[in-house]
Design brief:
By secondary structure, the protein is an all-alpha fold. Helices cover about 65% and strands about 0% of the residues. Helix 19 packs parallel to helix 21, helix 21 crosses helix 25 and helix 25 crosses helix 26. The longest helix has about 30 residues.
């Protein structure tokens, strides 16, 4: 206030006057928008931001975005709107008019323009990753070139392929990635925005246009794969923050019945990140929900570090649970490389059990273990309505049996992390009761098929899988209590 107004006594006059050009000036609209974004982001949650709540700038921002003369400024206008909506969002959300406007608006032209600008910006972020390390799908020509490359003298003795140096990604993502903020704000509070996202994806599938830019819904999945793969590779708080933001966007997608239904029914080729080993299996012509699950697998695989992002992992596991819950509710038997998914889940549990004492966290490990066990329990309990074939069920049971030691450690881990019960922890105690039953269900399956494998005296993975398949085909998969039959997921 001293710098801009010369003192507190003059602040009302100066800051109120500063807002007039935002609404009235046209020839300098772009520069005014840029200055407004810099100012609002610069003051963050400090008191001068309250002056932007006194005058409702939402109609002006809407006009800027929807007007043909100024639609090229949509990126800055959408960013300003989301920055204003975040002013004291956590402690005074009801007093913020921009949050209310985002929640209540039904202006689909506004939303389409935001999707249009967001799509271009998100594609630019993806291209920046791809320009650093080409991870395009292999073709006959590139495969032959890779063979010749591997025969070079300096590469012939390399035992395994290596990841690109992580330092190459230290400045990623580029600044355009900030467009995820307005996407997040609209996605989480405005149902009409869900319809616009699905509408653009459906129209793209019908027209099969020659445009090389996919609709925003699919671009978000592609961008998320890059953000989640590299989130913690350079220990950059900025990259981790964007990874967390993309996970919350994915959670918003699967919490919308309109969007998740489209993701399960549509067909689309979505290019995902293949820049870090181990690579996911080559993409197939599967529904987009498979790409979303792949994004979760990439996060689970590549971000297990001593300084564990526990809350982000909880968000990721919740996304997985919500997807599986939707599949069992709608009885959608999904064709997918499920083994990669189960291994990523079990690897997380193994990491937590073995590295607990050395982790640098702010808590939440107990909840993370509990929710991961509930995902496995849901998959086993409803495998016949989630998995596409009996073979997929056999492989799931085999992965669980193969990881028996890891799963048994979870009981000890939960006992070690358990806190004394209080009346305020009633909801937590209900979750613990569910987890206790879920763990019992999983271990009962593990013990049963482990004993059958032992009785058969087999000593190879393939033979053990055949034993499991034979037992399931003979008697079915006998499972315990169904903990996931509620109308809505917990």
């Amino acid at each position: 206030m001293e710098v801009f107004a010369g003192g507190v006594s003059e602040s009302d006059r100066v800051f109120n006057a500063c807002q007039v050009p935002v609404c009235l000036r046209f020839s300098l609209r772009h520069q005014v928008l840029q200055l407004a974004v810099i100012f609002v982001c610069g003051i963050s949650q400090l008191s001068p931001g309250a002056y932007f709540l006194r005058r409702d700038l939402f109609p002006c921002i809407v006009t800027t975005i929807t007007s043909p003369e100024t639609e090229q400024f949509t990126f800055e206008a959408a960013l300003l709107l989301s920055a204003l909506a975040n002013f004291h969002k956590s402690d005074a959300a009801k007093l913020n008019p921009y949050l209310r406007c985002i929640r209540e608006t039904t202006n689909k032209d506004l939303m389409r323009k935001i999707c249009w600008a967001s799509d271009f910006a998100a594609n630019a972020v993806v291209k920046a990753y791809q320009n650093i390390s080409d991870d395009s799908p292999p073709t006959l020509g590139t495969a032959f070139g890779s063979l010749l490359w591997s025969l070079r003298p300096d590469r012939a003795l390399a035992s395994t392929p290596v990841d690109p140096p992580r330092e190459l990604f230290k400045n990623q993502p580029i600044e355009a990635c900030v467009i995820l903020l307005p996407v997040f704000e609209f996605l989480h509070v405005n149902v009409a925005f869900h319809e616009v996202l699905v509408e653009s994806a459906s129209l793209d599938g019908e027209k099969k246009s020659a445009s090389r830019i996919s609709p925003l819904l699919y671009t978000l999945l592609s961008l998320s794969s890059y953000l989640l793969t590299h989130a913690s590779s350079t220990s950059s708080p900025r990259a981790i923050a964007y990874g967390n933001l993309s996970l919350n966007i994915l959670l918003g997608l699967v919490e919308s019945d309109v969007i998740i239904r489209h993701l399960c029914q549509a067909k689309a080729d979505i290019r995902l990140c293949r820049q870090r080993l181990p690579l996911l299996p080559a993409p197939s012509s599967w529904p987009p929900i498979c790409a979303l699950l792949d994004c979760c697998v990439l996060w689970l695989r590549h971000n297990l570090h001593k300084r564990l992002e526990v809350q982000s992992y909880i968000t990721c596991v919740r996304i997985c649970y919500r997807v599986l819950w939707h599949l069992q509710r709608e009885r959608v038997r999904l064709e997918y490389h499920w083994q990669e998914f189960w291994r990523a889940m079990i690897s997380l549990l193994d990491f937590l059990a073995n590295k607990l004492d050395s982790l640098i966290t702010t808590g939440g490990i107990e909840q993370l273990v509990q929710e991961t066990l509930l995902v496995l329990d849901l998959a086993l309990c409803h495998s016949d309505t989630i998995l596409a074939s009996p073979k997929a069920t056999h492989e799931l049971v085999y992965e669980v049996v193969r990881s028996a030691a890891v799963l048994r450690k979870q009981q000890q881990l939960l006992e070690k992390l358990a806190l004394p019960q209080t009346s305020s922890r009633r909801r937590v105690s209900e979750l613990q009761a569910h987890v206790t039953d879920a763990t019992a269900n999983i271990l009962a399956v593990t013990d049963y098929y482990e004993s059958k494998i032992g009785e058969a005296g087999v000593h190879s993975a393939n033979a053990a899988l055949r034993v499991v398949a034979k037992e399931i085909e003979k008697d079915g998969l006998c499972y315990g209590k169904d903990l996931h039959s509620a109308e809505e997921p917990p």
